[in-house]
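Hi C.,

You asked whether I'd gotten around to modeling the 166-residue construct. I have! Everything is below, sequence then structure, no commentary in between.
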Amino acid sequence: DWCTGSGCIALALKNRFPKATVIGYDLSTEALEIARQNANELHLDMRFEQKDALAPDNDSVKADIIVSNPPYIPEKDKLEMHTNVLDFEPHMALFVENNDPLLFYREITEKSIVSLEIGGKLYFELHERYADETKAMIQATNEFHSIEILNDLQGKPRMLSAVKKA
């Protein structure tokens, strides 16, 4: 789970698949501490590691699934956001530069090309305005098939899934 934050996605996966090895990566030491506390409270045995999603990753870990809810909100959208989000979510967990809203999607996709097993799945939470662009970027790698955008309960395109080609 790249950009794991409090670990909620990684912890849900570990709870659902207790025999799986689940690792949550985040740059923030504070977020990782919260994720570890959450894992302890839920009695889930898993790893959380400090890693920068934007830095080269020479790790040889192979994965069947890579998930991420990365920062994807352009800075310019800050004015449109509710204070309940801005007051409680760390800035670095939400925002990207205005000129590159796909930054984290692109970097994590590149890591997935190396790390995912053949037939492995990549999942992203999406910014609804950039869903089609994210899908096109992943298609352009020619490394994935069955690339799908899924809607949330309000009918907005908010999730992407893709399968690594052989």
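If it helps when you're writing up: Residues 144 and 165 are 5 Å apart (CA to CA).

Thanks,
B.
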